[in-house]
Amino acid sequence: MECILFIPAVHPSSKQVNLKTRAEWCARDTRSSEYMATPVSIVFIHHTAMSRCHDHTSCCQELKTIQNFHMDDRGWDDIAYNFVIGKNGYVYEARGWNRVGAHTAGWNNVAIGLSLLGISLAWNLIPRR
Known about the structure:
Elements: E1 3-5, E2 19-20, E3 42-47, H1 56-73, E4 83-85, E5 91-93, E6 111-116, E7 125-127
Parallel strand pairs: 2-5, 3-6, 4-6
Antiparallel strand pairs: 1-7, 4-5
Protein name: Peptidoglycan recognition protein family domain-containing protein
Family: Belongs to the N-acetylmuramoyl-L-alanine amidase 2 family.
Transmembrane segments: 106-126
């Protein structure tokens, strides 16, 4: 089933995505960077299955927890996703646009991985018609 994701805007009058850089959420340095050819035409949407965050401070803490788990427990080079979206409406840069992720085995070098902070059932997903 295809779904359309609606993300609440922090500033409804804004026409821009509120993107927070790795520095803004105090990301650790990546261990290595494998680059993929861009643009890509495939996007995978995941959810973190953790608690949702509603403000920048709690979202940063969730991101650091996920990054530590992925790097320390899983042994990956960085957080798995290219971008992570908080319930606060911010989009957080994880690996970014052109770095190969660790989100979907067999597809990481040709796809972007987005993840919602929290459980996907708590987000407003509307089936595409």
